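Weekly structure sync - notes
Attendees: PM, LS, DV (DV joined late)
Agenda: review two folding runs queued last week.

Item 1: First target. Sequence and structure tokens pasted below for the record.
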Amino acid sequence: MSNRDARRLAEALVPIARLMRRHMHTKTIKPALSHMEWHALSAVWEADRPLLRDISRSLSLTPSSASVLVNGLVKRGLLSRALDPKDRRAGPLSITAKGRAVLEQKFEYMAEGLHIMTKTMPARDRENLIRLLVSLTKSVA
């Protein structure tokens, strides 16, 4: 992709992100989570039993900051950690039923917002958009 095309893409994505944030701010999700807590919960959901260091890398956090973040989610019952008797940091993380329910609620609200934003688009354009975004996600994974 040329720099010009990358710039055009960035300029197209910014208003979409703003509209999604605006839509999400009209919704109340319980329990309330910070931006980083959402990212951590999503990172655990996306991964297969990640370790704390995986979350630290995924979110570009120091290990101690990731530990504080994850510990808070564990205490709130959104994540669980399998204990390793030798090293607490080595225990894999998993999302709890409560954590899944919270994420499901957020995804439903996001889907609602995306439906509002794309409902006037032709079905073929919506399918192409989905295909392209899935392709982009796979290319950076």
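Item 2: Second target, run right after the first with the same settings.
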Amino acid sequence: MIEIRGFEIDAAALLLLCLVLTLVLVALGLMLGRGGQAPGTNRGTRFFLVALRLAIGWHFLFEGLDKFHNPSWSSEAYVREAIGPAAPFFRELAGDSVLDRVEVVDKKLPLELDRDLQAYFDKFVVYYGLDSGQIKLAETKLEQQKAQLLTWLQTFTKPVQLPSDQAPPVVVSLTIPQRIQEYRKLTRELRDLEDEQRPRYGKIIFPKIKKARANVTKWRNELRSDLNEQLAQAKKTLQEVLHDDQKKMPPLVEPLIRPVQWWTPLEWSDIKVKYGLVAIGGLLLVGLFTRLACVGGALFLIAFFVAMPPLPTWPEASRVEGHYLYINKNIIEALALLALATTRSGRWCGIDGLMQFFPCCCWRRKSSSAMLEKSPEGQAAPHAHSSGLAGENARPGDGKETAPTLFKENPHGS
């Protein structure tokens, strides 16, 4: 099931509906949109161009629906590991969701962590239908858990293994603030390797960069794991206010979508990616606003390409499939979409082929370019030439014969 703005939609049923709708619209487009066929393109060419559009549309649509189907999906890991000239922009967009939730400032619970707990509490109250007495008791327990979390973030100690090239590994007991300090140190070392040493030493430094990335990821994941354990305990405590019949209900599905006013730039980016992929995929499948959808899809793919360009001066990203140099599958698919944007694929097979029959749409059925295309090879369409001459040479009231009259009297130019 996919939940979109509170509505649950069966993913398989939605895909089947899209497929059936696409086939119906394709059939209508083939029957009624024959006027959009361009000269010089035979049936085979048109068939494979349309097939390419449908394949890319299906890819976009399924990618978008899969992200809706997986509530825990986030582009944070992808954009945080961005490389190339645009890396600083993408890293700033990603932020650091772990630090935002474990770093105590002014002896207060981190803002993002407090918002997560409040969002869960609000959903918890609505989902289980708590009465006024249960709500008051739950609020008390929530405040207690917040106080305990604040204490844990300041005093909790855990044995951790420090990054070291020497054996045996060094294990020390550190508090959360000390682990954050070490995590920041590892991050600074990684940035120094990427931004300062990599341009000077080139590929020699690649192994160190990969190892530094692994250390940063390890420390981040450990902090996240420890925090999730505490959050799970806090949420379990709220379950104590439930009655027996409420405890029999299925557990609350997580992660939850927070209120819009609390969204971070990354959350806004993620929701745009989800809806953008579904919208572009759907438009390409049904052949509606096809050229606009092709350009939009190409921009999406170019953004993904810019985040992780396959440059020889950077080590290969761990999240990239295959091995590339300058060109990867994102740029190839973007070029295919831009090529499709120059064709009438939507009019050959899609709703765009039907739009020309609606008078409210500004379709120029008999434009000058279309008249030129229908004229014999090597001979310009008389009407197109006459329109151009009439617009350039004719002057109202000058008493001279206009271009259309000349063409009527001497159509062959002899």
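Discussion on item 2: The two ends are 72 Å apart (CA to CA).
Action: LS to circulate a short write-up before next sync.
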